[in-house]
Design goal:
This is Gamma-butyrobetaine dioxygenase. The chain is of the alpha+beta class and 235 residues long. The protein has ten helices and ten strands. The model is unreliable at 46-52 (pLDDT under 50).
């Protein structure tokens, strides 16, 4: 018992000495702040699980609008008409990877009344997966959806990036100055002339080709010069 009394007295002296030490006081204060922060940020397992689910997707039953939200970065949801997503399904059955366009076979058999049966998210792979009422499955990467978000800002950015250069309006008084003439054979043989011709069409909407042959198939040859020809509903 006497030893315990002596130990208690010594401990009190040490604590009293340390309490006057500024470095010890700073360490004690820092430790207390750390514990307070830990208590503030501590969450239940349910809360922690919810925080891990950053990507969410739901369907409004009344209008079949798909709401996609990335909680960490977006205060608002991205909204897509479900029929638009079905029409733009990116699977090999619906989408032509080489021409980056929808397959024509779907246009005659497209069900405009198709609905979303189930929507899930694959957080690690950043995918939104949709099971449709016709048993078809679609997967959309989050980046693909962000690039095509229907918000005004995203639409303006998408148009500026994919439809450059910007078109210029002109009237009848400007027609003579706007109209540029190109030689057919120059367009067929020179990539630089081809580019200039296409840019003129994109900016002014009109460009004249001269000295083209009068043979059958000339238009097809010119189209092949521009890009890969595919059969579409437009002809």
């Amino acid at each position: 018992l006497q030893r315990l009394v002596h130990a208690s007295i010594i401990l009190q002296i040490v604590v009293k000495y340390l309490s006057k030490n500024k470095q010890f006081q700073r360490m004690t204060s820092l430790t207390r702040r750390c514990w307070r922060n830990l208590l503030k940020t501590a969450r239940t397992p349910q809360q922690q699980g919810a925080l891990l689910r950053h990507l969410t997707a739901t369907v409004r039953a009344e209008d079949q609008m798909l709401l996609i939200k990335e909680q960490l970065q977006q205060p608002n949801s991205m909204i897509f008409p479900s029929i638009w997503l079905r029409d733009n399904c990116q699977c090999a059955q619906c989408f032509h990877r080489d021409s980056l366009s929808r397959k024509p076979l779907r246009w005659n058999n497209f069900d405009t009344k198709v609905k979303v049966r189930q929507v899930t998210v694959d957080e690690p792979r950043q995918l939104v997966n949709i099971l449709w009422s016709d048993e078809h499955c679609s997967s959309f990467p989050l980046k693909w959806l962000k690039d095509r978000d229907f918000s005004l800002k995203t639409r303006e950015q998408y148009l500026s990036e994919w439809y450059r250069p910007q078109s210029k309006h002109w009237g009848k008084d400007d027609f003579v100055k706007v109209l540029k003439k190109f030689d057919y054979w120059d367009v067929m043989r020179s990539d630089a002339v081809l580019m200039e011709w296409l840019q003129t069409l994109a900016v002014h909407g009109i460009a004249m080709l001269k000295n083209s042959p009068l043979d059958i198939g000339v238009v097809k040859s010119l189209a092949n010069r521009i890009g890969f020809i595919r059969k579409t509903t437009y002809g």
